[in-house]
Amino acid sequence: MTDLNQLAEDSFESALRRNPKFNSDSARLKIYEEVEEFECATFNKDADSPHCPELTAVEEELADVILSCLVFSKCENIDIEKALRIKNEFNKKRS
After folding, report:
1. Domains in the chain: boundaries
2. Span 4-93: which CATH code?
3. What pLDDT, on the 0 to 100 scale, is given for residue 26?
4. 57-70: b or e for each residue (b if 16 or more CB lie within 10 Å)?
5. How many Cα atoms within 13 Å fall on the side-chain side of residue 24?
6. How far apart are CA 39 and CA 48, in angstroms?
7. From CA 15, how far away is CA 71, in angstroms rounded?
8. How far apart are CA 50 and CA 45, in angstroms?
9. Backbone φ and ψ of 48, nearest 5°
10. For residue 45, what pLDDT is reported?
11. Rounded distance between C-alpha atoms, residue 26 and residue 32, angstroms
12. Given this model, what pLDDT does residue 6 score?
């Protein structure tokens, strides 16, 4: 399994290279932007990604949503792997 905290770190560093003033507010707004792009992509599920030929547009945009959430977790010093494990265990016990 991929180390999500390391992926968050890598994605955060990439965001900082593109925008040295990137911060938690920027990350939060990026999540909204990526969710909107994901929603648009779902209307044409068979469309190819314009950026990653091995992905559909839906796959690319969903990856962007997840990466944006990981970047936000890094900005806020959230151990996302721990949070996901705990939340997943909680969800398993829900009726």
Report:
1. 4-93
2. 1.10.287.1080
3. 96
4. bbbbbbebbbbbbb
5. 6
6. 15
7. 8
8. 13
9. -80, 155
10. 83
11. 10
12. 92
